[in-house]
Amino acid sequence: MRLDQKTAIVTGAGSGFGRGIATTFAREGARVIVADINDRAGQETVELIRADQGQAQFVHVDVASAASMRDLLTTTLGHYDGVDIVVNNAGATHRNRPMLEVPEAEFDRIYAINVKSIFLSAQTFVPHFRQRGGGVFVNIASTAAIRPRPGLTWYNGTKGAVVTTSRSMAAELGPDRIRVNCVNPVVGATGLLGEFMGVPDTPENRAKFTAGIPLGRFSTPEDVANACLYLASDEASFITGACLEVDGGRCV
């Protein structure tokens, strides 16, 4: 098992990519903290993991709140003796629309969830990783950071910030044996799909989006989870500051 006896926190693990990452990590031997703002969805992920004989605990978290992130670490340490891996997956978007039509409150919300959360995660977990002699961050960004398109301008900006911040973190934290990498998924059939498309979720509209992906399909939670698994594992012990596109060739 590639994550045997490691403890991993996955934010936004109640659904979509986060659920895929959490269940995959558990199958590979990790003790998983399923962290989500949606209690019901998070508990469902825990039940799925336990039904597959994995180890998991649910912790309610608001990734845009410093107090909530501190509670996440404290509660995790009440279950397990330390944290080895943090996957910052929780994210949000605005609906696909012209940039000037996005309200300021919506702009503030997505920057809080997508960018401030990385700041708070670092504030919370870097001291813990330093005490333990190392650790791993995997930050979920997006192909929107690499190949931005109209209609999601402010969302694109948040993911660009995640990529640049992750690379800078990797450079600064390398001497502490803390690795920081990004995964950049292309659009997937998750709960945010309708917002990303900005049009009804129909086969015809999906086809318009997959037409720009050379491998001809959306990303899946399994695709993203497998990339995260590699970057979190000891197989990637000499990889930091990398951004791995999981996009079927979208960014080529």
Gyration radius (Cα, Å) is 17 Å
CATH topology: Rossmann fold
**Helix content range:** 40-55%
Number of strands: 7
Order of helices and strands: EHEHEHEHEHEHHHE
Read across the widest sheet, the strand sequence of neighbours is 3-2-1-4-5-6-7
Layout: helices, strands, pairs:
Elements: E1 7-11, H1 16-27, E2 31-36, H2 39-51, E3 55-60, H3 66-79, E4 85-88, H4 104-132, E5 135-140, H5 153-173, E6 178-185, H6 193-197, H7 203-210, H8 221-232, E7 243-246
Parallel strand pairs: 1-2, 1-4, 2-3, 4-5, 5-6, 6-7
Helix pairs in contact: 1-2, 1-8, 3-4, 4-5
Q: What key phrases describe this protein's structure?
A:
alpha/beta; Rossmann fold; globular; 252 residues; single chain; seven-stranded parallel sheet; 15% strand
Structure explained in plain terms:
- The chain has 252 residues and is an alpha/beta fold.
- It has a single domain, classed as Rossmann fold, CATH 3.40.50.
- The protein has helices at 16-27, 39-51, 66-79, 104-132, 153-173, 193-197, 203-210, 221-232, and strands spanning 7-11, 31-36, 55-60, 85-88, 135-140, 178-185, 243-246.
- It has a seven-stranded parallel beta sheet with strand order 3-2-1-4-5-6-7, sandwiched between helices.
- Helix 4 (104-132) links the parallel strand 4 and strand 5.
- Helix 1 (16-27) packs across helix 8 (221-232), helix 3 packs parallel to helix 4 (104-132) and helix 4 (104-132) packs parallel to helix 5.
- It is globular.
- The two termini are 33 Å apart.
- The model has no long low-confidence stretch (mean pLDDT 95).
